[in-house]
Amino acid sequence: MTERRWRGDYVFLFENLILKDFKIRYRNMSLGILWSLINPLVMMTVLSFIFVRVFATRDGDAHNQPFPVFVLCGIVPFNFFVGALMSGATSIVDNAGLIKRVPVPREVVPIAAVLSNCVHLLIQIALLLLLTVAFGRHPNRYWLWLPPIWALYIAFVCGLALGSSAINVYIRDTRYVLESFTTVLFWLVPIFYPFSIIPLKYKDIYQFNPVAALVLALRNILMDGTAPPISLILNLTIAASFALGLGFLIFRRLKLRFYEHI
Amino acid sequence: MLPALRFDRVTKTFIHHTGRMLLRERVIEMMRPSRRPRFEALKDVSFELMPGDSLGVIGPNGAGKSTLLNLATGLSFPDRGSITVNGRVTALLELGAGFHPDLTGAENVRVNGAMMGMTRRQVTACFEEIVDFSGVREFINEPLRVYSAGMTVRLAFSVAIAADPEVLLIDEVLGLGDQAFYARCLDRIRSFQRDGKTIVLASHSTELITMLCQRALWIERGQVVELGAAAGVVAAYKATGP
């Protein structure tokens, strides 16, 4: 049992699938693309207000750390992770019509779902960079690290989406498990507190978490103006290769009976 | 010459599952691997089509016609036996499969073309031809949900044929277009056949099959009853009918 080779133009196919997702999502929204900005801005404002004003643990720029940028460095990767993983995980079941009727390579479906979320991501990264500059951090040569670390991160999420979308066909509870998992993850990523306040014995939990790794690397680059430590890059590279490898492996095994189970 | 499509003793079994894809069912299955009832949708089906051949598939509802086309398309896989295809396969299995109601006709043409394996250049080059052939030009920038069933099938057929497949699989959808479109479809299918392309057509319309196909395959309960010249198989099939 092997899937037949699909002969076509993958770039053109992905472009069309991403565009399709994008059009469907925004055609019925009056504010359109602005929604991509509103959610992170609201979250950033609320968290800044609570931690700078209400708890007053961090008084604004006391440590020369603009809190809004600091918190956005956490929100943008986390939001992308949740959004891309959830739409990726449900993508095969959501596209049942396609899976049952069109002989397009199945792997394309969850990957396109993740990549569709990259459209919002780009807008949010633009917002993040804009605020970074607005708060007086100048672009530096370490900004060149941004494309590769984001690429690794996106590859990592693609791997998770491949695996979970295939499992979700057979076990439809998968998406609820993932929802709980992302709720836990919110607290395992240093979104509104710095890595330095985490007690040493718990540091490992964060150290091996790729989402946290990206957040820390972003803060290194954008706020401290330094290169991200090699351990973080290594962490992201290993996580991305491992997730992609395992994701493809699971997907390849499970896709052969998608037709019967959707 | 290589066959365009070859089924070699193909058997396809469906396992009845409760239809509930939940964790609980999976755990129960694992603990008690019961022998769930199996259903053989196709049993030992063999045939071979050379480029230029056209095969009509007939049989009552539930005979396995759709299963056969799904397997040939590569959407599901046989349990035993093998299926060989040489060249690109395009299938018209269901009205507007792969189309999205919120996208316009033009957008759906591009997405569907890409999924069928057309390149950017091919879609751009064929776009006018697709729109002309479908006859839905005035609605091409309207969302698909305002299309009638006939318009949708016309557009779907136009894209499928523009993808220029070596093997075209059609499942009972052509009847939805109007008379004029039907006539143009038949013309197009005939020129397709003259180009040495292969067609498999599942239909309840024995007239359509004798008109378009030289060969016919009659299946019942997943098994081949008769395979041969279309006229003969259709006559035998009709003789058993009510």
Give the rounded overall mean pLDDT of chain B: 88
Tell me the number of helical segments of chain A per DSSP (H or I, 4 or more residues long).
12
Give start-end ranges of low-pLDDT stretches of chain A.
none
Strand content of chain B: 25-35%
Distance between the termini of chain B: 41 Å
Q: Which structural class is indicated by helix and strand composition of chain A?
A: mainly alpha
Q: How many strands, which pairing sense, and closed or not: the largest β-sheet of chain A?
A: none
Number of strands of chain A: 0
Spatially, the strands of the biggest sheet of chain B line up as: 5-6-7-3-8-9
Written as H for each helix and E for each strand, in order along the chain, the element string of chain A is HHHHHHHHHHHH
Percent of residues in helices of chain A comes to: over 70%
Largest inter-chain interface?
A-B, 37 and 37 residues
Plain-language structure description:
The complex is a heterodimer of chains A (262) and B (242). By secondary structure, chain A is an all-alpha fold. Chain A has one domain (2-261). Chain A is built from twelve helices and no strands. With 242 residues, chain B is α/β, with parallel strands linked by helices. In chain B, 38% of the residues lie in helices and 25% in strands. In chain B, the strands form two sheets. Chain B has a six-stranded mixed β-sheet, sandwiched between helices. In chain B, helix 3 (105-115) packs across helix 4 and helix 3 (105-115) crosses helix 5 (149-162). The radius of gyration of chain B is 19 Å and the shape is globular. The model of chain B has no long low-confidence stretch (mean pLDDT 88). The interface between A and B is large, with 37 and 37 residues.
